[in-house]
Amino acid sequence: MKPFATVLDAGTSTTNHTGSWRTERPRYVHRLPPCNNACPAGENIQEWLSLVEREQYEDAWREMVKNNPFPATMGRICYHPCEKACNRVTMDSAVGINSVERYIGDMALEKKWAFEKPKAQSGKKVLVVGAGPAGLSAAYQLALMGHKVTVTDTMEKAGGTMRYGIPQYRLPRDVLDGEIKRIEALGVVFDLGAKPAQLARLRDSKAYDAIFVATGTPLAKSVEIETSGNARVLDAIAVLKDMETAQKPKLGKRVVVFGGGNTAIDAARTARRLGSEDVTIVYRRTREKMPAHAAEIDEALDEGVKLKTLSVISKIDGETLTLETMALDDKGAPQPTGKKETLKADCVILAVGQETDAAPFEGLDGVAFQNGSLKVDPRMMTGTDGIFAGGDLVASQRTATTAIGQGRKAARSIDAWLKGAELAVATKNDIATPDRLNKWYYAEAKRAERTCVASERRVATFGEVQQGLSSDDALAEARRCLSCGNCFECDNCYSVCPDNAIKK
């Protein structure tokens, strides 16, 4: 027989003996839930969903924050690869993991649940350079380990790309601030609005026992566009950063955004909310090739943003843009066709990507960059002893969730290094794939979807676009989980075993 919920394995014997004649007895087998395996932050999703299912909400939150200190934040901005891996899609639709995470994260803020402080201090000092998701994640984990942590950043507020790259209509700042304050309450010291760190000088000062660098990709990539006249060309990251200041950027009525990623979408939607009436995204490939997430593109189009694909900006002369039509070759690469057209715009916003900044590493021997990313070893240590790095600075998927996972991993490596110990490598169980499930006793259940504010209302404000689940929907959604790979005490094995061989 197949294992129930992948936990009862009848072995490989082909005999059918029962009772005292049984050749191979059932045995309990742990398998790895596919959602857990797909989570870049390393959350034990199956475990905290089972706690939500039993309405043990605070226990569920405490399970979440073992690996991710930002459940309310990530419940809004994570693109939930866990749901793409969910086995429930073979029945109806994926469990709304991200929606439930946000629900529990918001409950924690409302009820003011706090992290438990470490029982002892190590006496070691660690500097974290960069107050983005990777840096804050590392600082949180290191503080829980008993180390004295200082976080430094050139910006006036902590959050990194979560604050200065993600608009408020996607992530309200009171949510982000509430989750950062919990980290600060652990005793983490924040040095904000500081001068750029010079790592060679910090290393030589021996003021810190270890340093973790998570400065991200603060530099805008350049693009070759012929520019003349009084052309107004802005950088998308700079525009989004300026949204956090008292003086909001003035973009004009007609805005063109050049690029196809999530930053381009955020810049275009921000322009609409600032009063720009005619906003167009120009992208060199087709919509299907855009790196931006499909849901974000759909919401932008609903808000009146226009999309002009297979086009590049070849010249900007004052308010006149010259576009060249592109065609995809056999390999999917855009090639110029020679066909030109013009477009009017008060300003052009470039969103063609960001790059790392090597300046803080000047004077350090052994530090190397490859393809624009800082090289680190499996411990996430750079070529300089005691200096670690993570987040967008190193080669990875450049998402906040991935950065949080890298911050956690780096903290574990730093802790082991400070203790002079080898970091234990965790072994993973086999993944609980759909073919290992018996789903006959699960009924189809419709997924609870989050609702969006109507497009005509949301473009007039920076209020949050996507709403959260109700308490009933969150509970129902958690109960859709199949608990792949681990027992959640449904007791179906008792009812089907003819030998009464099941023992807890």
Query: Which strand-content bin applies to the residues?
Result: 15-25%
Tell me the number of helical segments per DSSP (H or I, 4 or more residues long): 17
Low-confidence stretches: 1-14
- What would you report as the Rg, rounded to the nearest angstrom? 26 Å
Query: Biggest sheet: strands, sense, closure?
Result: 5 strands, parallel
Number of strands: 20
Question: Which strand order spans the largest sheet, edge to edge or round the barrel?
Answer: 5-4-3-6-20
The share of residues in helices is 25-40%
- Spatial separation of the terminal alpha carbons: 20 Å
Shape: globular
Structure classification: alpha/beta
Average pLDDT, all residues: 91
Describe this structure in words.
The chain is α/β, with parallel strands linked by helices and 504 residues long. It has helices at 34-38, 45-53, 57-64, 71-77, 81-85, 97-111, 133-144, 161-164, 173-184, 199-205, 236-242, 262-273, 294-302, 400-418, 455-458, 471-478, 492-496; strands at 8-9, 27-28, 125-129, 148-153, 189-192, 210-213, 219-220, 226-228, 233-235, 254-258, 278-282, 306-308, 311-317, 320-328, 334-344, 347-350, 354-355, 369-370, 373-374, 387-389. Strands 5-4-3-6-20 form a 5-stranded parallel beta sheet, covered by helices on one side. The longest helix is centred in the last third of the chain and has 19 residues, at 400-418. The two termini are 20 Å apart. The model is unreliable at 1-14 (pLDDT under 50).
